[in-house]
Amino acid sequence: MMTPFARGAFLVVALLLCLVREARSAQAPGDSTVYHLAPISRLVVKTGKAGLFGFAGHTHVIRARAVSGELVYHPGRPASYLRLRAPTDSLEVLTPPDTAEIRKVTEAMRTDVLHVDKYPEMTFAADALNARDGKMELQLAITMEGTTRRVPVTAHVAIRPDTIRATGTFVAKQTDFGIQPFRGGPGGTVKVADQVTFCFDLVATRGPSGEADASQAQHADPAAVPGCVDKPVQRTEDGRRPM
């Protein structure tokens, strides 16, 4: 049995704890908001050329057709986080505009480089984001071929009431993830460079994507993401490429 004094002390302590919790709640920022990636979002990769006969090969722009994910946004706190997923069998070579070569390079990329049967997904994650309008620096955890590496990324961010848009580029080395860059041609003389450039134009919305987003996605040029635009090959007067 508690004495009257003990009961009074207990009630005082309980009241103080309630007041502390209420004060903390009043000072805490608003609840988090979940933004889902919209269909108009674009994630592409641009490869380079390497090797003695690098001039004989092509740069390639590759898009992830089925990228999905979400951004959990905590206003006013560096606690927002990002999660993106891209099925490796959705990666599609867009350039150069040669159907036979695109099919060949896409098949080689999926079977010999990315091994989509064993590693069906690439993921991108960032924690402790201080999401705000303007420029944002973050450490992006990239997982490919079962290996995770962190890459510094600078993103340009625009936050609106119902949307968040992030654009930017970053580079990564394939060998850092245990990936051997593609090589082909006679005796393997044509090689893809180890370093590749990722370019992103991501739009996330608070609600489900509407018809307007789907329509924009159909008309958006997936190969025209700033930073990964594949420049047209210049030719001489006789139609040949310059050496």
**Poorly predicted runs of 5 or more residues:** 7-20, 22-29, 51-56
**Succession of helices and strands:** HEEEEEEEHEEEEEEEH
Which structural class fits the helix and strand makeup?
Answer: alpha+beta
Q: Can you tell me the CATH topology?
A: Lipocalin
Number of DSSP strands?
14
Number of discrete domains: 1
- CATH C-level class is Mainly Beta
Shape category = globular
Essential attributes:
single chain; 243 residues; alpha+beta; Lipocalin; 8-stranded antiparallel beta barrel; 3-stranded antiparallel β-sheet; 14 strands
Describe the 3D structure.
The protein has 243 residues and is of the alpha+beta class. It has 3 helices and 14 strands. It has helices spanning 4-27, 99-113, 211-219; strands at 33-37, 42-47, 49-50, 60-64, 68-73, 80-87, 91-93, 121-129, 134-144, 147-159, 163-173, 183-184, 190-192, 195-205. The protein has an 8-stranded antiparallel beta barrel. A hairpin with a 6-residue loop joins β5 (68-73) and β6. It is globular and about 80 Å long. The termini are far apart. Residues 7-20, 22-29 and 51-56 have low confidence and may be disordered.
Short recap of the structure:
This protein has 243 residues and is α+β, with helices and mostly antiparallel strands.
